[in-house]
What we know:
With 394 residues, the chain is of the alpha+beta class. It has three domains: 8-180, no CATH class; 198-242, no CATH class; 251-393, no CATH class. The protein is built from 14 helices and 18 strands. It starts with 7 loop residues before the first helix and ends with a strand. Residues 276-282 have low confidence and may be disordered.
Amino acid sequence: MTFNTGAHTLTNPTHLWLEIPEAEQAKIWEQSQAFSTSSRRWNAYLNRLSLNTFLPWLREEYAPNATVFPNAAANPSIWEVVNGTGISFGTSRIVLIPTEEVDLSELRVPQEWVDIPSWSADYYLAVQVNLEEGCIRVWGYATHAQLKNKGTYDAGDRAYCLDGEDLISNLSILWMAREICPEEVTRTETAPLPALPLAQAQNLLVRLGNPRVILPRMAVPFQTWGALLEHGGWRQRLYEQRQGQQQQWSIMQWMQTGVSDFAQKFGWGSIELQSGLAGARGSQQTAEAAALPTLVRRLTIAGKQYELRVQPKGKIEDRVWRFELRSQRGELIPSGFKLRLLTEDLQSFEGNQAQATTPVNKLYVEVALGDAGEGLVWQIEPTPEGYECEVLYF
């Protein structure tokens, strides 16, 4: 891939200029329609343009394995409520903060990207999007430590602000500093956010899921908002509700009509077990379960491919479900791997975890559920690539 910076480099030689292909602008606009208001569509458009232009350059020049964080499928749920796009490479993170503003006097970073522990990054890049000239301009960056120690906090729109003169305008210095001073403290410690009780989270989702609430991020105290947003399953549900979507993570619905389009973007699908396998087990209940599709989540853990399988044990109305981790290639699961189930609000319960003490073919947890609509969250150690908690509703 080539990047045409053209005459812009002569005007501002320390800034990074990257061309946006004209065809890419139209394609990305089509991909940026599923949002609650025109302003949120435009926010998604600017973020996607910046990401699709900057990430290929980053991979080619400095970080071949750079990827979106938390993951690409999660971006719409973020852009619905806040500006910014995360990128991870190795153990470091970058957040792009795009704007069309001509005034480059300051960098304004939404508080979410600074004070939510799992969102905070090492570097924040100021990105100017120029649609008329078809390019983006990275005109400076700051570290998390700079924002917290030198920036000012604007409570009016919950943003950390840093004067443009305090930004480092040459992005090359970022990479030089990483080589010369690898021990530089770029990220300060971020205090954990309080856990939200399930009832409170459900009430917030109903209230803030109404698209008439134009700025949900400003409607409740930040500690509450940040905790809701950090929970990937709840943030995804908030996004769906603001689009007027029905429940997209209902396991019972998936078993009847197939995995939802939303969930497929996160790696979920289904497979049919071989009928002969069920018969060989000699159990009528097992045969009935095998007649139903097995739900499968594709995972990459430590560079290897795995599957998380979810299926009923026996009759579906018995509400006993089995979560099973397997290697896609039939390899043994290494010692130390853990498979864990939590309640929707991330609480443990008896018998919720299985651990491989020696290499094994599979890890599984079986759980008997009570009321219909109960939510479960799965976790695996080591953490799969791009993992965010998902709520599966039974």
